[in-house]
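Supplementary notes for students who missed Thursday's class. We covered one full example, reproduced here. Read the sequence, then the structure, then the short commentary at the end.
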Amino acid sequence: MADHHHSQVAFGHAMRQHFLLDPSYLPLNHGAFGTYPKSVRDRLRQIQDESELRPDAFFRYNLPKYIDSARTAIAAYLGVDAGECVLVSNATTGVNTVLRSLLFKEGDVIMYFSTIYGSCEKTVEYLKETTPVQGANIKLSYPIGDDELVRLFQERIKLLKSEGKRPRVAIFDTVSSLPGVRVPWERLVDVCREEGVLSMVDGAHGAGHIELMLDKVQPDFFISNCHKWLFVPRGCAVFYVPTRNHGLIRTSVPTSHGYKPFPQEDQERVFNPFPASTNSDFVQLFQFVGTTDVAPYLCMDEALRFRQEVCGGDRKIMEYCESVSNEGGRKLAEILGTEVMDNPEKTLTKCCLTNVKLPLKIGEGEGDIKETDAFAVVAWIARMEFEEYDMFAPPFFHAGFLWVRLSGQIYLELEDFVTAAKILKGLCERVTKGEYRSERVA
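Structure (token representation):
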């Protein structure tokens, strides 16, 4: 496989030469789907080409070795053992793997915050329909202090226990999606450990975004996309399960050839067409999960090499992305005459995302936006950003206000946020004139 040699490039617009972004596009939403450098694209294509030369040899014999190498690379990056890391397609898959592996009984409860990623909440709803488990939704209205958030979490655990229920597992983010704010997930893991609750950390915005220190925090389960902030192609996520919990993960999603059913009388052996492996049962579950393009997994080393050789390492990347996000958010709020979402401790913005209030009032007065129209406004602004201005920063409704989320990244500069502010100011003026009213909402 190719060995690319890089030299460091200054952050900002000069860095765009390494990416495939259209020169006219203003990308302020890296946190949604990410993107990756050209050298990683080259590695991706090379792996895909190799898989077509001798498909059987690639999938049966070469792929397991390549995946082991990728697991070793991301485990070293995270500071954990390679035997505790496997690769899946995205964070939602990891969350589903945990929730669908646990055996729930009457009185069991899945805890989560109201800011949970939508598809993960729907997974909880599905399990409520098909198993005895219940859900406990902890309502959050941002901005909120870390101490208050942790207190709400602790109080709900105590309430559930006082009702004779068993908080079995809690799902929470490292950095939530909408709003895009830093969550005191490390403290929540500690609370879970003290209270005997399994901690399921949705680190969709984790690897490459914030410092994680998994070896120190020791969550029960942790999943992080690598295609958002780590510059790995879509879709790729690392699923970390410490050895103590391997027995709780009975199957991948979908169930793979690596699954080993409990012994039953007169049970015939199910044929596995793949070569024997010396990896643990846990790792074998995820070694071959159906025929799909896993070339993104095998770009891990090139993405990490790019971050080190071109960018100067993770710390420089994270510091720049957080800085340009925070400075850009403040500038955008200044131009709009509004504010950045943060708490008095300034912890919500200790990440590469920022949320700025839009100059639109929700209410029933003249010129106000009715709350029932909020999602139509969101849909209209998002569509106009694409159709008329070739930019995107997701608008959203939260706690009675309309906001916009912006991502910092190494190819952006402060002037990009100024451009976005002018666009958003004009769109908000058009909203007050009612241009959004024909918008359809999903």
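Commentary. The CA atoms of residues 105 and 132 lie 6 Å apart. The first helix runs from residue 30 to 33. If anything here is unclear, bring it to office hours.
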